[in-house]
Amino acid sequence: MRNDWDICVIGGGAVGKASALALAREGYRVALLSPEGESAAFAGGSDAPWDLRVYALNHVAHRLLSSLKVWDAMDATRIAPVDAMSVHGDDATRGHLGFDAYGARVGALAWIIEDGNLNHALDSALRFANGVTLLSGRAVALKRNDRHAEITLDNGSKIYASLVLGADGANSWVRAQADIGMDYRSYHQRAVVANFSCTNPHHGVASQWFLGSEGIVALLPLPGNRVSLVWSAPDTLADRLLAEPAERIAERLSALPGQTLGAFSILPPATPRAFPLRLIRSHALMAHRVALLGDAAHVVHPLAGQGMNLGFADIDALLAALREQGRDADCGDDRLLARYSRLRKEDVLLMQLTTDGLQSLFSSQLLPVKVLRNAGMSLLDKLPFIKQRLVSHALGRSHHSSANERT
Fold this sequence. Notes:
Layout: E1 2-10, H1 14-25, E2 30-34, E3 54-57, H2 59-67, E4 80-82, E5 84-88, E6 96-100, H3 101-104, E7 110-114, H4 115-127, E8 132-136, E9 139-144, E10 149-153, E11 158-166, H5 173-177, E12 182-198, E13 205-210, E14 216-222, E15 226-234, H6 235-243, H7 246-254, E16 264-266, E17 273-282, E18 286-287, E19 290-292, E20 298-299, H8 307-325, H9 334-363, H10 367-380, H11 384-395
Parallel strand pairs: 1-2, 1-11, 2-8, 5-13, 11-19
Antiparallel strand pairs: 3-7, 4-7, 5-6, 9-10, 10-11, 12-15, 12-16, 12-17, 13-14, 14-15, 17-20, 18-19
Helix pairs in contact: 1-4, 1-8, 8-9
């Protein structure tokens, strides 16, 4: 059995689904290949359990998903805007940094969205999308030549496409098949995630604490008096957090310096989960007739909440490269893919260096380093121009002019 497509996207996550929708909207014939049953069910509504995996989506993601009619298809009652950020160092008397939407001249700095809400809306859009064919199965071989790429599935069928997009996660099969090397480093930390109700309102503020040897705690606003915890904890502490009663974690959160949310109670599902944290740098974002997107291309520390945003910005850049080349051109052309790689190189490298550098800086236990980093935060808080540059980058403004905004 033979199938011919312009583009084959491999990967069933949000970045793979969004890229398939965006490319079909440009007129390409797209196959989306993903394992069966990869998306979890999403009930929605205020009474349903809150997803343990949430994303802080920025303005690049908002524009892309809005252009695909996905943003408005999500359950708005489950989305919380981030109106401000409050960052605390590990010195209770100094070391504080604040950002707010008013100062950034935007309606919101970001939006906190559950994985299930996002994927449910993407799945609904895919069911009605012209130009996208959903395929389930496992790819077992990839061959490429001057005319096309050939993907063989475990059932013996073959997919022929001009371009293969690897959106298949940190352990990317596509990256390995294309012989793209990567640098890997474990942070020896895990992101412990859980959701809590709090007695006081959060007022749309996302709060973060750099706690030195105890890692980094982020409390992200959810609708109502609820927050999502992402605790980037060293492995030994992560073991303790997962083993101890939820009430003990709530007590730890209540004791955070400067927190104003009052007392915490864990929300169902009442069992926290943990995800290993690592840094992955792909040696290239493209090979002959192959491009990488999302975690297949880059994995960063979650302290800035930019992992998913980098993936959506990858889609934005790929669309820009394809539009410049023209619809009639070979979408797997090496020059086109090299342009995509150039568009993403600076943004990805800057985010990797920033998150890795901050993680290293705030994990140091040397007293001079602790004093300097907290003093530096307080100084930065008094420098509005530099703060504005940091906020602009987080919002996605430093990215090239949005490829997904049609004229």
